[in-house]
Design goal:
The chain is mostly helical. The protein has helices spanning 2-9, 16-38, 42-50, 57-69, 74-94, 101-114, 119-131, 135-146, 154-167, 171-182, 189-197, 218-232, 240-247, 258-275, 278-281, 286-301, 305-317, 328-342, 346-358, 366-379, 383-404, 409-426. Helices cover 71% and strands 0% of the residues.
Length: 427
């Protein structure tokens, strides 16, 4: 970027402190951009690469860590918060789950020693209780934060409390906070309404969708499609709350908790019994396969990998009898790959994760599946190859553009270098 080249080439600064603070700001921005782009699903990544933007996870973390631990000033503090934010929200919900909670807690404890009353730090600290499966203490902590008269982000508390109560099976309180979260929601009103609509407001969801940059964001699209499906299927969805908890990776937070997970399994077993007759009496098995899939998900969380794989095999084997739940086969392939990943069968995991990416397309949950599949591949050391391919594609696109404009690459690079020098002189 221009700012990064200015940092490298500028020779005159007001002081060493101003130089270091500028460097911290540039590294934070560069690191955050690289980290964000490296986590984008490949379908969207191709478009971003085409317009000349690429990102590397390793470069992103290097720059963020340099800003956080080797440079002074406000941007250094912000870089540490980026670390905490990624470990407490991005990684748990969009990747493989809370893999770095212990590291996050250590970093947060250091910050809380300096700023014990900082609201944002205390929100993060409460989030870590949730990530560790301590749902009861997390509820108490969120409720305590809500008593603060000066609390601004109350909607964040409502959102988290809604899920906490859903995880412990207190549906009435989950509805209460879902309604509080939905009221006045501006960013994702369809998703906010759908969460509450799972219980009582489904019919109005399609009328409140909004678009960002001309596109419906994935949570909005999921909410609208699911509510329309509800209306077309005799006002019936199969365990929609469990499905949403799975998609947001919230069930992962109570992994190994037999008491809480058994409540979900009891409900799943009732649905399996209800729709088992479809195996012989219907051409379509959507209801049965959805329940079977969720049985596999919960079995994996209980570390019963044999049963989990059996459930996913049933889903994949019957993909030809699916009439509307077209995401299930890809999600089942993803879960099979994640099971092998957890069992340390890395070669098999890579094979299955690539299968769910390459062999399935055009289904509703494609972005979610790809996010988690690539997160697992990065953990297995495959992500570096992806970035290398992106860099090669980016260079190819740039050369194609230069050829179309009848500009030689050498001339273009010289022009950019001259422009950078002029910027530095003018500053």
């Amino acid at each position: 970027s221009h700012a990064n080249k200015v940092r490298k080439m500028r020779t005159h600064w007001e002081s060493e402190a101003s130089k270091q603070q500028y460097e911290a700001a540039v590294r934070l921005a560069n690191g955050f951009m690289n980290l964000t782009i490296s986590n984008i699903p490949p379908k969207i990544l191709q478009v971003i690469n085409f317009i000349g933007i690429s990102g590397s996870e390793s470069i992103g973390w290097y720059n963020i860590d340099t800003a956080a631990y080797k440079l002074p000033g406000m941007f250094s503090e912000l870089a540490r918060l980026v670390r905490v934010f990624y470990w407490s929200y991005i990684e748990p919900h969009l990747c493989l789950g809370p893999l770095n909670v212990d590291h996050c807690q250590k970093l947060l404890d250091i910050q809380l020693e300096k700023y014990p009353k900082n609201l944002m730090l205390n929100i993060y600290n409460t989030k870590l209780l949730q990530l560790n499966g301590r749902i009861g203490p997390a509820i108490d902590a969120y409720q305590n934060l809500l008593t603060d008269q000066h609390l601004t982000p109350k909607r964040v508390m409502y959102f988290e409390l809604m899920w906490c109560y859903a995880l412990v099976g207190d549906i009435d309180r989950a509805i209460e906070y879902a309604e509080l979260f939905r009221t006045g929601s501006m960013y994702s009103p369809a998703m906010a309404t759908f969460i509450e609509a799972v219980f009582r407001y489904v019919k109005i969801v399609p009328t409140v969708r909004i678009r960002h940059v001309g596109k419906t964001i994935t949570p909005e699209k999921l909410a609208v499609v699911r509510s329309e499906k509800y209306l077309k299927c005799n006002h019936m969805l199969i365990l929609p709350d469990v499905e949403v908890l799975y998609e947001l990776n919230l069930l992962r937070f109570i992994r190994g908790d037999k008491l809480l997970l058994s409540k979900f399994m009891d409900r799943i077993n009732k649905e399996l019994t209800k729709y088992k007759s479809d195996l012989t009496g219907s051409d379509y098995l959507d209801n049965y396969l959805m329940a079977k899939y969720l049985e596999g998900v919960v079995s994996k969380l209980l570390f019963d990998y044999t049963k989990a794989k059996q459930c996913m095999d049933v889903v994949i084997a019957n993909d030809g009898r699916i009439g509307r739940e077209f995401s299930l086969p890809a999600q089942a392939a993803l879960e099979m790959g994640l099971i092998e990943y957890e069992m340390k069968n890395h070669e098999k995991a890579i094979e299955l994760l690539n299968k769910c990416i390459n062999e399935y397309t055009g289904y509703l949950n494609e972005n979610y599946v790809h996010l988690r599949a690539f997160a697992a591949l990065r953990e297995l050391g495959v992500g570096v190859e992806k970035h290398s391919e992106d860099d090669n594609k980016l260079e190819e696109y740039k050369n194609q553009w230069l050829n179309g404009m009848n500009i030689k690459k050498k001339t273009y690079d010289q022009l950019m270098e001259t422009e950078e020098k002029e910027i530095i002189v003018n500053n």
